[in-house]
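new request in #modeling-help
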Amino acid sequence: KNEVEQSPQNLTAQEGEFITINCSYSVGISALHWLQQHPGGGIVSLFMLSSGKKKHGRLIATINIQEKHSSLHITASHPRDSAVYICAVSRTDKLIFGTGTRLQVFP
Amino acid sequence: DGGITQSPKYLFRKEGQNVTLSCEQNLNHDAMYWYRQDPGQGLRLIYYSQIVNDFQKGDIAEGYSVSREKKESFPLTVTSAQKNPTAFYLCASSILGGGRPQHFGDGTRLSIL
């Protein structure tokens, strides 16, 4: 069993829909990261969380340390949000990655 | 603008050949990392370095080698001992300290001819 599990693996949405991507982990962590990988392959860091909730534009990330669970929400989704979203957890000085959620948003 | 530059974007290797992937950063980060990405799998750590002239093996170091002669540079050599080198390779850097955000390059896609 992977130490970091994401769901769903694939997600299709219509423009404007509210989107939720989930991440569960089974190890002790110092922080959780949400990353976005564009079709060309480059990766951008969206959030780093150790507790509570963070918001940036239409993106919201939450974490529940007791339940070892995090969610990434996208409000008013847009086709430009189409990407792979990756959850990663920090353990000592390394990151452990989930396999990613592929999101496609259609106009 | 500060960032990480990986080159080349695409690389082809013949059987039995070593190839070197370049990674340069101008973010003044002490830590640098190399990851491998395969379809359907999460990124896996190959090597990492926290200081010049020092580096540690990650989870899948066999068949790879690195050097860290300068703070800005962390090249990865894929040797002929790596039996399945076809993959997407990503370089990243961060400031020191557990849990710090990592900045990623745009990756190099390596294929075998």
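bot summary: The CA atoms of residues 24 and 69 of chain A lie 4 Å apart.
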